[in-house]
Amino acid sequence: MRLPSDRARGALPDLAEVADLVKQAALAENLAAASKLKCATKADGSWVTEADRRMQERLRVTLARRWSNYGFIGEEMAHGAQVAVCEQSCAGYWVLDPLDGTTNFAAGFPCYGVSLALVVDGGARLGVIFDPIRNECFTAQQGQGAYLNRRRLPCSSPAPRALSDCIAIIDYKRLLGDLAEQLVRSPPYRSQRNLGCSALEWCWLAAGRAQLYLHGGQKLWDFAAGYLILSEAGGVAKSLSGLPLDCVRLRKRSVVAAVNADLNAHWQRWVNASYAAPQTSPL
Fold it and tell me: Which of 20, 68, 129, 151 gives 20 to 30 Å between its CA and that of 183?
């Protein structure tokens, strides 16, 4: 498939306008009011609520009306439909997680958000992650920096030099046994957290609220916007096997990330010593 030139695609959508649309949709769906909700269980065992579906449909319609040249992939779409968009949308496509942290949301635990990225030529070019509880909107455009509520977002500065001085965000559930056991028995960092919301974990790392991140497997809508935001804030992320993250296909990717390149190199070496990831690993 031949991809169109930048001239053929035209300018990217205005980032501030995209962010406002995400915030307006979250307000219309009253996402700031976390409450216990009835959930359905999807084929992969995860939960979905009507709020997920309504938010996805609202933004799908809004984005199509405003920028009809881009395709749309939402987490709650059928897999076949997602693949078709990924393969056929020459100009690019939106990638939406309408409610990342559904389990938190449904339980009344106030840590969840909306994640939206625009993917062009296999990479995220725009990213918006909105936390309706704290009214924090994280945004980034490739080559233009990352922002929190329109304030420039560098990662923690100065960052710790040693792993032992760091706060790490670790998702144990998706890590293989040996690595998870080593992290529990002999953690190299000062302290560990897990938010239960990948989108906000990326953003909190970009904001310097933690310095290290480890996740065993994220889908495209989990990392597309967050990876761009972290990268534009000066952070670095790779997979467990040391591969760069990309948005070329619908595949899970593991994440080893830190607020800067030096710290990520130390973190990656520690992880590699504790987990021998095959170089051909899809993660």
Answer: 129
Average pLDDT over residues 185-190: 94
- CA nearest neighbour of 169 among 219, 114, 226, 130: 226
Q: How confident is the model at residue 43 (pLDDT cuts 50, 70, 90)?
A: low
135-149 pLDDT, tens digit each: 999 999 999 999 999
Domain with residues 163-274, CATH architecture: 3-Layer(aba) Sandwich (3.40)
Distant-in-sequence, close-in-space partners of 190: CB < 8 Å, separation ≥ 6: 164, 165, 166, 167
Of the candidates 131, 139, 132, which has an alpha carbon nearest to the alpha carbon of residue 14? Answer: 139
pTM: 0.91
Q: What residue spans in the chain does CATH classification 3.40.190.80 cover?
A: 163-274
CATH superfamily, with its number, for domain 6-152: Fructose-1,6-Bisphosphatase, subunit A, domain 1 (3.30.540.10)
DSSP for 174-242 reads: GS-HHHHHHHHHS-SSSEEE--S-HHHHHHHHHTTS-SEEEEEEE-HHHHHHHHHHHHHTT-EEE-TTS
Identify the H or E element spanning 63.
Answer: helix 50-66
State the Cα–Cα distance between residues 180 and 178, nearest whole angstrom: 6
Question: What length does the chain have?
Answer: 283
Q: Give pLDDT tens digits for 226-248.
A: 999 999 999 999 999 888 898 88
**41 has a pLDDT exceeding 80:** no
Give the pLDDT of residue 68.
95
| H or E element at residue 100 | strand 93-100
Residue extent(s) of CATH 3.30.540.10 domains in the chain: 6-152
